[in-house]
Amino acid sequence: MTEKQDYRDTVFLPATSFPMRGDLPKKEPAMLARWERMGLWERLRAASRERRKFILHDGPPYANGNIHIGTALNKILKDVVNRAAQMGGADAEYIPGWDCHGLPIEWKIEENYRAKGQDKDAVPILQLRAECRAYAAHWMGVQEQEFRRLGVLGDWAHRYATMDFPSEAAIAAEIGRFLMNGELFRGLRPVMWSPVEKTALAEAEIEYHDHTSTTIWVRFPVVTPTVPELAGAAVVIWTTTPWTMPGNRAIACGPDFDYAVLRVDGVKEGSLARPGEVLVLAQPLVEQTCEATGITAHTVLHVLKGAAIAGTVCAHPLRGRGYDHDVTVFPADFVTTDAGTGFVHIAPGHGEEDFELGRTHGIEVPETVGDDGTFNAWVPLFAGLHVYKAADPVCAAMTEAGGLLARGSIVHPYPHSWRSKKPLIFRATPQWFIRMDGAGEIRTKALAAIAGTHFVPEKGRTRLSSMVAARPDWCISRQRAWGVPIAVFVEKKTGQVLRDQAVVDRIVAAFREEGADSWYASPPERFLGPGRDPAEYEQVRDIVDVWFESGSTHAFTLEARKLPWPADLYLEGSDQHRGWFHSSLLESVGTRGRAPFKAVLTHGFVLDEQGRKMSKSLGNVVAPQQVWDKYGSDILRLWVMMSDTAEDLRIGPEILKQQAELYRRLRNTLRWILGSLDGFTPAEHLPEAEMPELERWVLHRLTELDARLREAVRTHDWTGVYPAIHSFCATDLSAFYFDIRKDALYCDRPDTVRRRAARTVLDHLHRCLSTWLAPVLAFTAEEAWVARFGEDTSVHLQDFFEVPARWRDEALAARWAGIRDIRRVVTGALERARAEGTIGASLQAAPALHLNAEQAALLTAAEWAELAIVSDLTLTTAPAPESAFRLPELPDVAVAFAPAEGEKCARCWRVLPEVGQQPKHPALCRRCADAVESGLVCRAAAE
């Protein structure tokens, strides 16, 4: 080779087709198309046929509108878990699904009718159901494309949907199981009712908003006292629901509380209290009540225990106006003295505790309110009045009758419909229930199943347990049209539900062939079969709660497809403890005796950068569609896994910029590795036993990260895994190992042990990082894999790189932790010299490193120079000068700066005295002259 002064062609600078810019918005769609062409999903299934199945059962999103950022979070997390399980050695068969029935879709179709001035109740039910089906199908298609754009890999060709005919048949069969095992029954119970939507709502469909309620203090005159002290007195109740007064049938008191029998001696002007009247209320609430009712002076005549008052009979405050029934005082443990008067008015049709107290004492449950929230025609004084507008008329009527003592208002959290945003009411209606404490012992078995389930985070166990322990019987009926009907018959003569497996089987068979529409399109004799007169039976038209439907998905998604049951994992937001986790558990325990899942993982909600809930009015909504258009889906995926998903996540413009920067560092790490592996062949591989310590330390770090990743695959707890991998790339590799080994990789002869060791480690790093990052950076990891191994392969067809256990070396790790601490002192001294303008680059330095004897034995001076990236270094145990650089936490280490002596090598840029002494290459140091003379580095010239 002819000697030249320009040695650039002899340096092994990184070369790769993997570009610095990700350009993800353009590349990702092309990669999705490539995966489709190569049949990636099918190839994975074929290659994994003999492996253990891993089943993450998809909690179905609702087919109503574009996906939002919370939906994206959920699906990304599921995809990461599935991909990691697959690369961890399992066969991760993921079947995405949709929830298609229910109120939101029906409400949307009804809105269209209302906009056209049509009466929705006049629309034939099959027409309404067909329009709902078409609406759901449209949004399923839209959402599927959006999920695919996020990079979610699944069996999209065989997705499930609750409105598919086989699904509707399976749901009907599950209802049939409860029918036949005796746990399904119809009963009168108070349920959360939406007067706007005219249906009962599930707990998961309820949200709480501040609401201003009218409060009233009401007299109930004593008719039959239990003790003489109550003669002529009036029991005072307080309530925030004046509209429930027509339904009052009793009063509750605390048996152990002290109650004052007081005489009113003075009142404020305008007060409805009357001087001389005698009132009864809890003693701790006397002052508070007097203040609220305008009583300025009073005398306590007697103090009685609640137990003495129990049994007292009072008159309704509207007696003589259609409310002439007796109102008895009963003891109850739910009464408190936190607010009010210590007496609770009991309307058995409008409260859970009211209902239970009424049932205990045989009190009638009047149905005062109709489906639309108006008082029924038989209700005296208020027939036809809507409960939302009842406060003024009720107060006026009670004022006229002398029953109202005072009126006020309170702002408090109140249940609202999540769809209409309107207040709800408790209303006793005939509904279909599943017994929690019947012969099937659903509650007991559910609590046992929770105890045997793995929760991530662990607090989910307590939350779900407390909900199951306290919940009433499961109300599964809804008074709507779009859904799977509770396909049962009731014998009109006896009121008994028909329990006949043959009838159930005929219903299920019809639904499987024609869908649930057949319940409305077919005559009842089709299902009842021969020998029964349809006129003797009521065909139930209520639909089943959508939470029962989604809770049944394990039956027709896993069991029907002969996939392993129970599922390995259910993964949803933390709100699903009262939703899908809850309903799935109860449905499965009630029909199969155990939970449909082995583990439950929950994630938080998505908030804006200030920690606020996202809303259009605040203008802080981050749409996933906008993010992937600007940054790419890999940035969203990285945001999910760099967050602590067990808590609420924040997102916004600044956070997305931060994620883009984190992504850039990871991408640059992959790019530098790929560039430095240019031309690498297996022949270069060097056994770890022959490697320098620095390389063996990197291999040890790989074992630590590999163990952490595999533990996450096993436990489903991904907290901190990818931040640790990012930190490894940024701190251990880019800022340390790569920085040190650039010199060897660029300038050493290819056959040197040091360069071969480094390139061997880089080969391992590429395989590890590409597979480790693949579950998260699905597109970028693929690009990095294809850039090295070609278009006919995919990183997603690989398993995680098998890191040999022999690479783990705790003693070496401890040793190098000390070495890196000492190195920090050297680099600190160099930074000070650079800041003072003494040097520009570290290779211009040749410092003296002062250590104690033990530290001095760690490495040679040449090795320290290599680690510190200086041209030379003096290692000494002599005392350091006062001017030497030190760090407070390392008092035994000091560095005295000195400039490097000699000339700068034109090839490696080290400053050495030997530069100028090589006859053929006077501009080079000995190492570089040898490398050039060897002829092994002249690739560019040869080309």
TrEMBL record:
<keyword id="KW-0648">Protein biosynthesis</keyword>
<protein>
    <recommendedName>
        <fullName>Isoleucine--tRNA ligase</fullName>
        <ecNumber>6.1.1.5</ecNumber>
    </recommendedName>
</protein>
<dbReference type="InterPro" id="IPR023585">
    <property type="entry name" value="Ile-tRNA-ligase_type1"/>
</dbReference>
<dbReference type="GO" id="GO:0000049">
    <property type="term" value="F:tRNA binding"/>
</dbReference>
<dbReference type="InterPro" id="IPR002300">
    <property type="entry name" value="aa-tRNA-synth_Ia"/>
</dbReference>
<feature type="domain" description="Zinc finger FPG/IleRS-type">
    <location>
        <begin position="902"/>
        <end position="930"/>
    </location>
</feature>
<dbReference type="InterPro" id="IPR050081">
    <property type="entry name" value="Ile-tRNA_ligase"/>
</dbReference>
<feature type="short sequence motif" description="'KMSKS' region">
    <location>
        <begin position="613"/>
        <end position="617"/>
    </location>
</feature>
<keyword id="KW-0030">Aminoacyl-tRNA synthetase</keyword>
<dbReference type="Pfam" id="PF08264">
    <property type="entry name" value="Anticodon_1"/>
</dbReference>
<feature type="domain" description="Methionyl/Valyl/Leucyl/Isoleucyl-tRNA synthetase anticodon-binding">
    <location>
        <begin position="695"/>
        <end position="844"/>
    </location>
</feature>
<dbReference type="GO" id="GO:0008270">
    <property type="term" value="F:zinc ion binding"/>
</dbReference>
<dbReference type="InterPro" id="IPR010663">
    <property type="entry name" value="Znf_FPG/IleRS"/>
</dbReference>
<dbReference type="InterPro" id="IPR002301">
    <property type="entry name" value="Ile-tRNA-ligase"/>
</dbReference>
<feature type="domain" description="Aminoacyl-tRNA synthetase class Ia">
    <location>
        <begin position="31"/>
        <end position="651"/>
    </location>
</feature>
<keyword id="KW-0436">Ligase</keyword>
<keyword id="KW-0862">Zinc</keyword>
<keyword id="KW-0067">ATP-binding</keyword>
<dbReference type="GO" id="GO:0006428">
    <property type="term" value="P:isoleucyl-tRNA aminoacylation"/>
</dbReference>
<comment type="similarity">
    <text>Belongs to the class-I aminoacyl-tRNA synthetase family. IleS type 1 subfamily.</text>
</comment>
<dbReference type="InterPro" id="IPR033708">
    <property type="entry name" value="Anticodon_Ile_BEm"/>
</dbReference>
<dbReference type="GO" id="GO:0002161">
    <property type="term" value="F:aminoacyl-tRNA deacylase activity"/>
</dbReference>
<feature type="binding site">
    <location>
        <position position="928"/>
    </location>
    <ligand>
        <name>Zn(2+)</name>
    </ligand>
</feature>
<dbReference type="GO" id="GO:0005524">
    <property type="term" value="F:ATP binding"/>
</dbReference>
<feature type="binding site">
    <location>
        <position position="925"/>
    </location>
    <ligand>
        <name>Zn(2+)</name>
    </ligand>
</feature>
<feature type="binding site">
    <location>
        <position position="908"/>
    </location>
    <ligand>
        <name>Zn(2+)</name>
    </ligand>
</feature>
<comment type="subunit">
    <text>Monomer.</text>
</comment>
<feature type="binding site">
    <location>
        <position position="616"/>
    </location>
    <ligand>
        <name>ATP</name>
    </ligand>
</feature>
<dbReference type="Pfam" id="PF00133">
    <property type="entry name" value="tRNA-synt_1"/>
</dbReference>
<dbReference type="InterPro" id="IPR009008">
    <property type="entry name" value="Val/Leu/Ile-tRNA-synth_edit"/>
</dbReference>
<keyword id="KW-0963">Cytoplasm</keyword>
<dbReference type="InterPro" id="IPR013155">
    <property type="entry name" value="M/V/L/I-tRNA-synth_anticd-bd"/>
</dbReference>
<dbReference type="InterPro" id="IPR014729">
    <property type="entry name" value="Rossmann-like_a/b/a_fold"/>
</dbReference>
<dbReference type="Pfam" id="PF06827">
    <property type="entry name" value="zf-FPG_IleRS"/>
</dbReference>
<feature type="short sequence motif" description="'HIGH' region">
    <location>
        <begin position="61"/>
        <end position="71"/>
    </location>
</feature>
<dbReference type="GO" id="GO:0004822">
    <property type="term" value="F:isoleucine-tRNA ligase activity"/>
</dbReference>
<dbReference type="GO" id="GO:0005829">
    <property type="term" value="C:cytosol"/>
</dbReference>
<dbReference type="InterPro" id="IPR009080">
    <property type="entry name" value="tRNAsynth_Ia_anticodon-bd"/>
</dbReference>
<keyword id="KW-0479">Metal-binding</keyword>
<comment type="function">
    <text>Catalyzes the attachment of isoleucine to tRNA(Ile). As IleRS can inadvertently accommodate and process structurally similar amino acids such as valine, to avoid such errors it has two additional distinct tRNA(Ile)-dependent editing activities. One activity is designated as 'pretransfer' editing and involves the hydrolysis of activated Val-AMP. The other activity is designated 'posttransfer' editing and involves deacylation of mischarged Val-tRNA(Ile).</text>
</comment>
<keyword id="KW-0547">Nucleotide-binding</keyword>
<feature type="binding site">
    <location>
        <position position="905"/>
    </location>
    <ligand>
        <name>Zn(2+)</name>
    </ligand>
</feature>
